[in-house]
Specification:
alpha/beta, 4 helices, six-stranded mixed β-sheet, globular
Amino acid sequence: MVVDASASTRRHGALSQAKGLLAQLFEQAYRQRARLAVLHASGAQAQWLWQGQQSGAAVQTWLAELGAGGGTPLLEALQQASRWLSRRQQLKPAEQQRLLILTDGRLRDWPALPPASCPALLVDIECAPIRLGRGRLLARELGAQYWHIEELPGGY
């Protein structure tokens, strides 16, 4: 998971909605004994919180304390996630991987990005009255499925 928690995600309840979705996903991962890798994109640089660990109390604590601020190191986070996924696929070829990106897409511009190496979903959390729609463009470039958080089917 790549979680964009830049300052712009505080606006219009976007981060609150994202935290609700993350809580559901963490609970689902716990029940399924799935392993998580969570990359927090906030401030000056992206930071790994977990890499291939099961969901548990530490994940819930981080989620409860999750705030937003600073810049958007989303591109750095996507590059780090891509490298990690490639290494993980080599180490555990039988493991099914999925990439989840939560972002409001508020980037000015970005270089061409390679498609994700596994099935990917970009959840757009942009909730401002005037939406730039960059999340959809980013998803298309990454070859990711796109959903706006307000339109997510209940079963994800």
